[in-house]
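Title: Comparing notes on inverse folding

I've been comparing how different people in this forum approach sequence design from structure. To keep things fair, I'm posting one structure and asking everyone to reply with a full sequence. Here's the target:
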């Protein structure tokens, strides 16, 4: 059976990266789950498509950690939706995650593009 086309160029996220991306998306303002997924897809130029089966458990986990708060509101489509916002603890966690991400990028860059020995 042939592979489905949408998955050919799919980017797999490193473990823990989804949490950081959700926190970052909420840095842009409160949003419901589907809106978070749309924002991440748009900002990634369609390279990242977060499945609901991954997104919603992550949102619940982040809320349990105290990094997100939520409330039920009417969505743009006039439906009841749970809106998430970043808490002060979530902003601190985002800063920590961003620092860790920068270190991962630097480390992988050293491996992929080693400096010329001189």
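Reply #1:
Here's my take.
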């Amino acid at each position: 059976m042939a592979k489905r086309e949408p998955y050919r160029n799919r980017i797999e996220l490193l473990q823990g990266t989804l949490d950081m991306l959700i926190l970052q998306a909420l840095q842009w303002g409160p949003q419901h789950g589907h809106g978070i997924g749309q924002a991440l897809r748009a900002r990634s130029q369609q390279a990242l498509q977060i499945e609901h089966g991954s997104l919603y458990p992550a949102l619940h986990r982040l809320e349990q950690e105290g990094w997100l708060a939520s409330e039920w509101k009417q969505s743009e489509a006039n439906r009841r939706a749970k809106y998430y916002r970043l808490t002060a603890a979530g902003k601190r966690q985002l800063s920590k995650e961003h620092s860790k991400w920068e270190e991962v990028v630097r480390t992988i860059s050293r491996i992929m593009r080693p400096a010329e020995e001189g």
